[in-house]
Amino acid sequence: MEWTNEARYRTCDSMTVEERKKLELSVSRSLWRQRYHIQPPYGLLNDPNGFVWYKDRYYLFYQWFPFGAVHGMKHWYQTASADLVNWENKGVAVKPELPFESHGIYSGSGFVHNEFLYLFYTANKRDEEWNRHASQCLIIMDDKGKMIKQDTPIIKKQPKGYTEHFRDPKVWKGKNSFYMVVGAQREDLTGCVLLYESDNLKNWNWLGELKTKEVDFGFMWECPDYFEWQNHGVLLFSPQGLPPEGDYFQNIYQSGAYIGKPLDIENNYFEHGAFQELDAGFDFYAPQTTLSPDGKRLLVGWMGLPEIEYPTDKEGWAHCLTIPRELSIKDNILYQKPVRELQEKRKNKVKRALNICESIENVEEFSGQSYEMIVDIEVGSAKSAGLKLRVGEEEETLLYLNKLAQKVVLDRTKAGESFAQEYGTIRQKAYLKEKIRLHIFMDVSSVEVFVNDGEIVFTARLFPQEESCGVQFFAEEGIANFEAVQWKYE
Ligand code: FRU
């Protein structure tokens, strides 16, 4: 099918029964549907939106284009969960209806105030010349799920000095006011964040650009998120256009954080350290955080990237979200670890200790497509040691320690159906400690690896054959010790 503008800019209401059935049939034949990740019923998912705890449950929306695996008319799709493990699909929540949102409901955030859930989003409109117009908008939801959309934007357009790339509002409460950050682009085509203030969540004043140490750091900053954590200020954002630097910034676009002092609101100033890339893997973008009712800072990201073709595109669906992760800060470094609640999924524990000398050992009991595994590795005298995952006749995904280089390596060169190869098939990152723990979450078409309690995280999509389920341990040129525990996920 040819994706003309007419085909891309339709709302879900215009989908015929035949179109839906065709998509559902195609998705049902896919080898790569996930078992425990949030994924679209069909069509394309991208950013997580409006992640929030409201009235005894988490709400987590996502960017959704219903008609196929391309970017077009975006809607917000709604999911909800009481436990961060079992998510209920609740269908389309916000769709384009008003003239200023004629080309999509773009990303945004949720904020609970006076018993209501305030959902802030960007309305995207194209005019006859296909020029973009972006405004920030609000829809208010009550505890019955009823939504009332404000019929005019709360921020009509970008301030002078900035382009129409003005989107992704994230709101929080400060000492005396509510604040909002919005991703933006200066007229000199560099990215930044704009800061707004309000005392009622409906009328917003522009405070200015959030001054950071970087004035030329990519051409656009998408999906900003600001929060304060244990006397630190943290700004997450997804800068576009950073050139690769050694092992860093290898993907088409990046996501990361500045950690610093709490914002100096009076002066719009953020005193912060160096940019920290949030993920060392291949497929991670536009993360969003929220606060749990017991005060944890949780993060979910899009397990995908813009402008990359994925193997499921031809099946009429694409992408998923990451598992929810809990954030913490140690020595000014942001750590991510899987939320505790996921332990509820642990079934059929298998435990093995292995001492491997210049060989490869297959552990049949560990074979599978969907599991959690914790592997402690002592590299000992070996030059490199690690795991081969999703092993089949011709397929394998390597996760290992290169002792000489002191790096953890994820190699998907032979993982299965290839994609995004122009960005390379190997990712690696230096590790700090000698003893390494790999905490692995494997699903049918993805892997998430948390190294040493989340000091490094690798997130990647993998598209192997169904039969490629093997798990092997190896050590090269010497001896290595492994202790491994695994739980299969249903
Ligand atoms: C990030 C992004 C956002 C935008 C949305 C549109 O992936 O480009 O900046 O709001 O996706 O789907």
From TrEMBL:
<dbReference type="InterPro" id="IPR013189">
    <property type="entry name" value="Glyco_hydro_32_C"/>
</dbReference>
<dbReference type="InterPro" id="IPR013148">
    <property type="entry name" value="Glyco_hydro_32_N"/>
</dbReference>
<comment type="pathway">
    <text>Glycan biosynthesis; sucrose metabolism.</text>
</comment>
<dbReference type="Pfam" id="PF00251">
    <property type="entry name" value="Glyco_hydro_32N"/>
</dbReference>
<comment type="function">
    <text>Enables the bacterium to metabolize sucrose as a sole carbon source.</text>
</comment>
<dbReference type="Pfam" id="PF08244">
    <property type="entry name" value="Glyco_hydro_32C"/>
</dbReference>
<feature type="domain" description="Glycosyl hydrolase family 32 N-terminal">
    <location>
        <begin position="37"/>
        <end position="338"/>
    </location>
</feature>
<dbReference type="InterPro" id="IPR051214">
    <property type="entry name" value="GH32_Enzymes"/>
</dbReference>
<protein>
    <recommendedName>
        <fullName>Sucrose-6-phosphate hydrolase</fullName>
        <ecNumber>3.2.1.26</ecNumber>
    </recommendedName>
</protein>
<comment type="similarity">
    <text>Belongs to the glycosyl hydrolase 32 family.</text>
</comment>
<dbReference type="InterPro" id="IPR013320">
    <property type="entry name" value="ConA-like_dom_sf"/>
</dbReference>
<dbReference type="InterPro" id="IPR006232">
    <property type="entry name" value="Suc6P_hydrolase"/>
</dbReference>
<dbReference type="GO" id="GO:0004564">
    <property type="term" value="F:beta-fructofuranosidase activity"/>
</dbReference>
<dbReference type="InterPro" id="IPR023296">
    <property type="entry name" value="Glyco_hydro_beta-prop_sf"/>
</dbReference>
<dbReference type="InterPro" id="IPR001362">
    <property type="entry name" value="Glyco_hydro_32"/>
</dbReference>
<feature type="domain" description="Glycosyl hydrolase family 32 C-terminal">
    <location>
        <begin position="342"/>
        <end position="485"/>
    </location>
</feature>
<dbReference type="GO" id="GO:0005737">
    <property type="term" value="C:cytoplasm"/>
</dbReference>
<keyword id="KW-0378">Hydrolase</keyword>
<dbReference type="InterPro" id="IPR018053">
    <property type="entry name" value="Glyco_hydro_32_AS"/>
</dbReference>
<dbReference type="GO" id="GO:0005985">
    <property type="term" value="P:sucrose metabolic process"/>
</dbReference>
<keyword id="KW-0326">Glycosidase</keyword>
<keyword id="KW-0119">Carbohydrate metabolism</keyword>
<keyword id="KW-0963">Cytoplasm</keyword>
